[in-house]
Amino acid sequence: MRRGSDSLAVITSEHGTRLVRRGRRFGRISILQFWLWLFLFATIFLLYFLFFGLKLLSPATIEESPDISVKEQSSPSDGGSKHRKKYFPCEVGLKESVDYVMEPRQVMNFTQFSLHYIDQEEEPSTSRIYEPRFGGHPTLEEREQSFYAEIKLFIADLSEVSSCIFGSSDFLRRPTSRKVSDFSKKTVCFVMFVDEQTLAKISSEGHVPDDTGHVGLWKIVIVKNLPYADMRRTGKVPKLLSHRLFPSSWYSIWLDSKMRLNTDPMQIIEYFLWRTESEFAISNHYDRHCVWEEVLQNKRLHKYNHTAIDEQFTFYQSDGLTKFDSSDPNTPLPSYVPEGSFIVRAHTPISNLFSCLWFNEVDRFTSRDQLSFAYTYLKLRRMNPDRPFYLNMFKDCERRALAKLFRHRAELSTPPVT
User: Fold this and answer.
1) Same domain, 301 and 157
2) Which of 22, 37, 256, 385 is least surrounded, with the fewest CB atoms within 10 Å of its CB?
3) pTM
4) Backbone conformation region of residue 2, classed left if phi is above 0, alpha if psi is from -120 to 50, else beta
């Protein structure tokens, strides 16, 4: 029994020792395999990121498609959508400096005709109560006649950059001064229209106008007696009627208040107007190209009264508006929906007429100018086949390259949804 016990003890001891030794060996092998697998996965991930990440962000790829979506972000304000696409700028071939910018000799080779404005309309002879309106009371017949270009306007050598903030809807964003040449600082007017509420707000944030009324490059112009209760519609006055507000300017650039200008204005005018021999330039929308899509999006996000949108859209369809077809070689524009936050224009007669007609649609129907852009342009072309209008619709990524885009401070109130 003693020998058996000793043998058992020895056997037990040896077996136990072997188990312990095997356990230690197994532990060392497991840890080694773990680190090897971890290193392998890290290497694969790094190679994947380098290959696909650099390919996605390469300038050549971005130039090929202006609407590249490389990331999706959560957006609680996207009307129920959980993700929001993010877009990036592309390269723009601007002149190196304004020293190389020259106005082409043929810049005036556009349609010339007389353009008359009605400063004050006559009160109707009927006994009904007459209420003055900023946009007047044009009848449908008068509206129809206004699309005809009836046959020189002033010529000046000034340019202006304008924007507006009404209802404290945005922060004041100054143009990047170091990107603007001394020449443009002396010859280009930078005008920011604000109401008294906005002036008080931006002043409390440190943007107090100096003795000349400037905040940086912006000349602050205070607007009183606003023409509309709807601040969005009020903002369309400086946006679409710059030729009326600045009658001595030959060129103008509109910049939405959600953007900060990072480019010299003269370089912008040269690139979008002179180089392309255009008199009006605006970018296409980054995501939508058909008015049908824009109507649905406005209603889905409750951007305006649904009944008013339907009335406007029904009227446009009855007057010949059709769906955008990118495959149609005769389609006059690369998109029927613009991104209207950045507009470059020469104050030529046909350009001024288009701007007035576009504003008239905003005044008569909804303030959503993206709904009326294509209709106004197509109808103007249709009714004036012998008077060409040189409109340049450029890529949205070019717009993003020239000005930094921010979010609005607050959403302005909209008419109730029905």
Assistant:
1) yes
2) 385
3) 0.72
4) alpha
